C-alpha cells in the first residue's frame, strides 16, 4: 500500500509502509484524534457555565404573612437572578451577592494599605516638624484618603477567610415575602440564573412568630488581625454576653459554629407543658464531609440557678431532638442548643420551635383504605383533640405525608400508608400460634407491639403453590418498631423469616427496619405469621401495618439530579434509578411527557434486572434558550397489564464521605443556555475572549 511518509528533509517522499508500520501509523492517528476530541470535549465542558449549588439556607423558613431576609450559601451563585418555589404564595428577590476575595487580592490590598500608612505617617511627621507644606509633591491628598478608604471597604465587604468551606463560601441575600394564604409546611427553594437551576433546598413556613440571629461566618483570624491594625473590633452581629431573651411561643433560627452554644432565656409558668422541637437534619438531611453525616443537635433546659432539668439529643430514632417538660415553678428558664461533638459550620442550621404548642408524637392506625374516611387516635402534648377523621378520596395508594388540622389548629404532618386491600384489626391476646388471629387473604392488618416482649401472631389458610407476600410498614411511617417477621406452620416450624429490607425510595431513613418476604406455600393447610420487635421493646407508639397478599409486581422510577443544563443541540446525562417491588424484574421504557419539543432520551429503556442506568437527554439545535420544566414517564409490563408511572425527580445525597441516599424532589428542571454546539463564527467575525 502506497503512503506519504516523512523524509529527513522539509518535504514528504512517496513510499510503502509495512504491515507493522501501517498499524503503528494508524495507532498514532487514533491516539492523536482521541486527544483532539478529548480537548474539544474538555473545552466545551469548561465553557459551560457552572450551575448554582446551594449548601445552606438561613433562616430556613419564616412566618406566614411576613417578609424575611434570607442568606443562601453555596457555590456558583454569582449570576443568580431569581428564586423558584414548588408552591405558590411565596415570592423572593435577590438583593446582593458576596464572595470572599482571593488571598492574592487581599495581600495586594494589604500591601497597598501598608504603603499608604507609611506615607501618611511620614507626611504627618513632616507636618508636625514644619518641614513639608500642604502643596508639596509628596503631600497626603484627598485622593490618597479616598484610595485608603476604598481599599479598606473592599476588604470589609468580602474579606478572605481560609477557614471557610469552599462549597459554602459564596452567599446571596434574598428578600422573601410569604403570603397570608400559604399553607403551613415544607416548601422547596431553588436559585436560578443563566447557568442553570440549583439543587432544591427545604424552606418551612409556619404560624408562630420567628426570631433569627444574624448569618454566621466561620472564625477569621486573618481579618481580626487586620481590624486590630485599623483599631476596630470584628462586627459579628451577635451578642455573646449572655442568653438571648425571647417570648413564647416562638421559632428560633440559628447556626452553630465550632465550640459554640446558643442560649435563649424565657419566662414560663408552673404547670406549663413546654415543647421544644428542633429541626436540623429535617433541613439538611446529610452532610457529605462530616461524621455521623448530619448536625447532631443537643437541647438542654436549665432553671434560673443553672440546674439541668431536661436534656435530649434525639426523638426516638430521629436525630432531631424534641424536648418535653412540665414547668415546675414560675420563673426564668434557659434553653441551650449545641452540637453533640461541639462541631459547627455555616451549614449547621437549625429551626427551634418553643412554647406550649400542640405536638403529635404518634397516631394509630398508621393508614387505611383509599376512598374511605380514616379515623386516627392521636397521642402527644397540648393536643386539642384525641381523635381526628381525615378524608382519603383522591389520594393515591402508597406512602403519603398528610397534614393534620383540628379546626384552625395546625397539628403538623405525619406519614400514613394507603392501600386498596381490605383492612383488618388486631385482637388481643394473640401472643402465640394457639391464640393467633385468623385472617382472610388478601388484607392489611393494623396492629401494635403493645409492651416489651410482646409478639403478635396471625393465622391464614394457604394453598399448595400459592405465592404469598408479607410486608411490614412501620419505621417508614414514623413508628419506632424494629420489626421481625416469621412465617411457619405447626407449633414451631419456621418456613421463612425477614428482618431489615432496604427501600431505596425512603432515603431519609438511615436504619431501614421494615421486613419483607415472599413465600411459596408448600401444601394446603394452616400457616402462621409472627411479628416481634428485634430489640424486645414495645409500647403504644409501636404501631405497624402488615400486608398479606399475593405478589403485586410494581416499580417506581427516580431521575437524578433534579436540575440539568445543556446547550442547544447538546446532550446532558442523568441517572435513572428503578425501585422494583414484589419480584418485578422486567424492562422499563422511558418517554418524555413534558419538555423541549423534539428532545429525546437515549437509551429510552432500562433492561430487565437492572436498577440503575445512565440516560442522555438530547435537545435539538434550535431549542429555545431558557428554563424548561421536564416530566418523564415510565412504562412496564406487569402481569399482563401495562403499568405507567411518573418518574420522580430526586437528588442523591452523600453521608459521611461514603453512603449515598436517594431523596425525592418536587420538580425536574432543564436549562438550555449558551450557543449551539458545532457553530463556528463567520469569516472575519470578532471573537470575544
Automatic annotation (TrEMBL):
This is Peptidase C-terminal archaeal/bacterial domain-containing protein. It comes from Limisphaera ngatamarikiensis.
